[in-house]
Structure formats: structure tokens, C-alpha cells
Amino acid sequence: MKLLCVCPIGIGNYLMCYPAFYALKRRRPDMPMHMLALRQGIAALAQGDPLWNGVETLDPDKMKGDIAGQAAAVFRLRSARFDACLNFFPSNTWQYHALPLLGGIRRRYGFRYERKRLSSLSFLGTDLVAVDPALHDVRQNLRLAGFFLNEDLSSEPIVFPRQFGSEEERWAEDFLRPVAGGSRVIAIHPGSSAEHGMDAKRWPPERFAALADRACRMLGAHAVIIGSGDESAVKHAVKASMREPSLEIEPVPLKKTAALLSKCACCIANDSGIMHMAACLGVPTAGIFGPTDEKRNGPWGEKNLLIRKPMPGFPVWTAKNVGDRWLPPGMNPMASLNALSAEEAWEQMRPWLEKI
Q1: Per-residue confidence (pLDDT) for residue 295, from 0 to 100
Q2: Residue 218 and residue 354: Cα distance in Å, rounded?
Q3: What is the DSSP letter of 202?
Q4: DSSP 31
Q5: In principle, which of 7, 273, 323, 330 could form an S-S bond with 12, CB 3.0–4.6 Å?
Q6: Whole-structure pTM value
Q7: Domains in the chain: boundaries
Q8: What angle (nearest 5°) sits at the alpha carbon of residue 191, between those of residues 65 and 219?
Q9: pLDDT tens digits, one per residue of 250-286
């Protein structure tokens, strides 16, 4: 059996799938496992991991209109002769289901989604398991792996990848030494992916700055503001509004970002890949949630904090409507974030910080 694991777009998605990847290899160590990454950043994290016999990258956004490139990608899939593929959660768009079929993969495992069954082509799967809306994505993906193995993985150990090596760790230590001057460091991530309207997950930067200032004063810490190049504007805005010592870090490779996070006393972030990176490294992480569902994709682990302003109708994007961004007329997906003041967030955060 030669298996292809199709990873959803997003660094956080890769991390939420990883315990299922690990369980598959643990239960079937002789089974060749390959991963199809739909973003280069995911492939960069996965490269060198002994879990994988191969990592392929295919970015559908970059290949729009590139008929030759699309044909070459399908040919590579067919040439690899995979026996089965697993489409991990969430994968409710047509690319996830069309590629394995065109790639000649006969057994195609995935989820039976409630929305967009026709337009997403999810019906092309040969073996489908129902989505359980009560489960975190980590558990959802373990269910799919168990469905494929015909085994119960509910008690499987939760294992996340290392994310960085000794070279990146030395770099992070050298980078932070003159920055913090021996004081504690707090990671601040005020951005999020802007793809498909996901910038609606961003709390207003001036409130982020006010919350970060309070946390820095309480811990006697120095803040490092991190994020990718397309988050520069929101990083600048937080830096400009902060009063406590802070440093805005220029974008660095993901493995260096992970190494920096591992040296921090805590991380304060919107729902984002960096939030998941910190939590999966065991760094105490406070996640600020608005339109997305913390029950589904909150930071994994017992050290973490979920910050939310309760409002009727929120969260709006849950496991039940994965892949469907439709909102009722007049619904602002940022409404609960806009209603959350820095003072309210601090009331939720202060008792948590006292335990760090």
C-alpha cells in the first residue's frame, strides 16, 4: 500500500493533521507515505521529516491558467502510482477531490461535508466519513486515519513535529540575546492569513498593542512582533501603538520563526498558523477568536487561553459550514472582535499570566 496524504492549505492545518500522520506511520511503519502540500511553506516544514518518503508541492493558486503545469502535476501523480489517498480536514474545495481522481488513485478517503457537496466534488471520494462538528481538527483528522486503518485511534498519543533544528535554535538564541537583554520575551502575532477573507480574524492593532503592553508590564518582558510580509501593515500599527519595549521582526523562514517562538515565555495571537506553531511547541498561547470556532481550531494543549467576546451568532465559521463563506445579509464577521475591548481581553488574560 502506497499512501498519499493530501494536506489542507495552511501551516496550522499541517500541524493539526500531524498527529494523524504520525499515527499512520506508527501503526504501519512499512507503508510508504507521501505528502501533497498545496503551499510551499508546508513543504518546507515537512522536508527532512523521517515520517515522509516524499513531499510533493502543488500550489493551485499559482497554477491558475497554467494548463501545462496542471497537466504535468497530474502526470507526476499518475506516475507515482499511489494506491490510496487521504484528504484531511478541512478539504471542502474541488481541487482536493479532482486531483486524486485525475491522478489515478483508486481509493480516495475523505469527509462527507454538509455544504457544497456538488461544487466541491467531495462526492468523488470512494470512502467517506461524516464530519463530527463537536471535534477539534486534531481529533477529526485522527478519525479519518482510523477510518482508513479500520482502527480506533481515540487514545492515540498526540505528537507534533519538531518544527526546527539545532541551526535555527542557535540563530534564535543569538538573535534574542541583544534584543531582550536577559528579560523574558513575549511573542505577538497580530496578523493572520488574508486568503479567502480570513483577515476578518484580525483584532484591531491598537487593542492588540494595549493588551501586549499590559502583558509586558506584568511579566517584565520584551515583546517581539512577528508575522509574514503581507502582515507588515498590522505589525507596524501594533509597534507604533505600544509603549513597552518591543521589536518588529522582519519575516524569516518558518523554521526560524518556530525557533524564536520556542524561546518565548508566551505567545499572544489571533487565530493563525503562528498561534498553532507556538501551541504545538508547548509555548503558553493566548488565542484571540472572532469569526472562527475555537472548539474546532483553538490552540492545542492545556497551557493555553481562549479569548472571545460572546455574541449571538458567533462563531460564524464552524465545522458544519467548512468551505462555505456565505454569511447572512448584514452580518459582519468581525463584529465580535470589534466588540472586544482591550480591557475585557485583559480581564481574561491576567489570571492566566499569573500562572506562567
Answers
A1: 96
A2: 9
A3: P
A4: S
A5: 273
A6: 0.95
A7: 3-149, 166-353
A8: 155
A9: 999 999 999 999 999 999 999 999 999 999 999 999 9
Helices (H), the chain: 11-27, 40-46, 67-80, 94-102, 137-149, 166-180, 205-219, 232-241, 254-262, 273-280, 294-297, 335-339, 342-353
With cell 496542471, the residue in question is 70
State the virtual CA torsion across 284, 290, 295, 299 in degrees, nearest 10.
-20
Architecture of the structural domain at 166-353: 3-Layer(aba) Sandwich (3.40)
Residue among 192, 188, 165, 193 at smallest CA distance from 253: 165
Cell triple for 264: 518565548
Please give the Cα distance from 30 to 354 (Å, whole number): 47
Tell me the C-alpha distance between 25 and 31, whole Å: 7
Q: State how far Cα 89 lies from the chain centre.
A: 11
Convert the pLDDT of each residue in 205-257 to its tens digit: 999 999 999 999 999 999 999 999 999 999 999 999 999 999 999 999 999 99
The C-alpha atoms of residue 63 and residue 41 are separated, in whole angstroms, by: 16
Q: Which residues of 124-140 are buried (b: 16+ CB within 10 A; e: fewer)?
A: bbeebbebeeebbbbbb
Angle between helices 205-219 and 342-353 (to 10 degrees): 30
Identical fold at 3-149 and 166-353? yes
